[in-house]
């Protein structure tokens, strides 16, 4: 059986969550010193879907549903969850990230939750705040704005 090369690649998953107030949830990454979507590493044996469900629960405790979650069942053997994009990112402190990016709609959330389980800041950004935030990677800004346009 072949194995995934974990030596120089980190397999990760992230999600841009949108709430009913038309805001996107981002977290402050202390290593990168910028706002990024919630997410993390895919553990051995997890699917990207499993990993992002676990990461959202651990980091926020919020419930969500996937956007673009086309489910097809074929005698119970096939389930298709469409990720929004797949990114290969060079991360200075981690090497290469192989990132499954999802979009999601927050079903339940607590506006008083302002940090992750790892004590990193969480913040809901409006469209104007995303456009005007100085410390945000352009790919994060672009995808956050796309999430607001796509998710109702």
Overall description:
This protein is α+β, with helices and mostly antiparallel strands and 152 residues long. The protein has one domain (9-150): Nucleoside Triphosphate Pyrophosphohydrolase, CATH 3.90.79. Strands 1, 2, 3, 4, 5, 6, 7 and 8 form an eight-stranded mixed β-sheet that branches. The protein is globular, with a radius of gyration of 15 Å. The mean pLDDT is 88. A hairpin with a 3-residue loop joins strand 6 and strand 7 (95-108). The N and C termini lie far apart (43 Å). It contains three helices and eight strands.
Write the layout of secondary structure elements.
Layout: E1 9-18, E2 24-29, E3 34-36, E4 38-41, H1 48-59, E5 63-66, E6 85-91, E7 95-108, E8 122-125, H2 127-132, H3 138-150
Parallel strand pairs: 1-7
Antiparallel strand pairs: 1-2, 1-4, 2-3, 2-8, 5-7, 6-7
Q: Taking Cα atoms only, what radius of gyration do you get, to the nearest Å?
A: 15 Å
Number of strands: 8
Distance between the termini: 43 Å
SSE order? EEEEHEEEEHH
Report the sheet-strand fraction.
25-35%
- How would you sum up the major sheet? 8 strands, mixed
Global morphology: globular
Report the CATH C-level class: Alpha Beta
CATH topology value: Nucleoside Triphosphate Pyrophosphohydrolase
Structural class: alpha+beta
Indicate the low-confidence ranges by residue numbers.
none
With helices defined by DSSP (H or I, 4 residues minimum), what is the helix count? Answer: 3
Mean pLDDT: 88
Quick one: CATH superfamily?
Answer: Nucleoside Triphosphate Pyrophosphohydrolase
Q: What helical percentage do the residues reach?
A: 10-25%
Number of domains: 1
The CATH architecture name reads Alpha-Beta Complex
């Amino acid at each position: 059986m072949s194995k995934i090369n974990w030596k120089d690649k980190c397999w990760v998953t992230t999600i841009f969550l949108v709430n009913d107030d038309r805001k996107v949830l981002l977290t402050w990454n202390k290593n990168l010193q910028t706002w990024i979507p919630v997410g993390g590493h895919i553990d051995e044996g997890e699917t990207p879907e499993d990993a992002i469900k676990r990461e959202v629960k651990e980091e926020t405790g919020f419930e969500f549903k996937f956007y673009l979650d086309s489910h097809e069942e074929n005698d119970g053997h096939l389930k298709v969850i469409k990720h929004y994009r797949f990114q290969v990112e060079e991360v200075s402190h981690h090497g290469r990230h192989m990132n499954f990016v999802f979009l999601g709609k927050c079903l339940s959330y607590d506006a008083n939750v302002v940090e992750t389980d790892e004590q990193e800041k969480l913040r809901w950004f409006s469209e104007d705040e995303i456009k005007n935030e100085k410390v945000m990677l352009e790919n994060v800004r672009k995808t956050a704005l796309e999430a607001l346009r796509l998710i109702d």
